[in-house]
Amino acid sequence: MFNATFCRPDLTTFLGLADLGLEAIGLRLEAGRAVIECVPISDD
After folding, report:
1. I need a labelling partner for 40 at 20 to 30 A (CA). Which of 14, 21, 24, 33 fits?
2. Best CA proximity match to 12, nearest among 39, 43, 33
3. Full-model pTM
């Protein structure tokens, strides 16, 4: 693999939230579900 790109693993990247204009800032794990807290990404 000649042009490999590595970045820090995080929920925003893993879940593709940046494409939706969101950034993950929190995670809560409960029995049977996970809740991801997100905030909008501002381009200001």
Report:
1. 33
2. 39
3. 0.67
For residue 42, pLDDT beyond 70 = yes
CB 15 within 8 A of CB 36: yes
Residue indicated by tokens 């909008």 = 40
Instruction: Tell me the C-alpha distance between 13 and 1, whole Å.
Output: 21
**Residue 27 contacts residue 11 (beta carbons within 8 Å):** yes
How far apart are the C-alpha atoms of 1 and 31, rounded to whole Å?
39
Q: What's the CA gap between 26 and 14, in Å, rounded?
A: 14
Amino acid at position 32, single letter: G
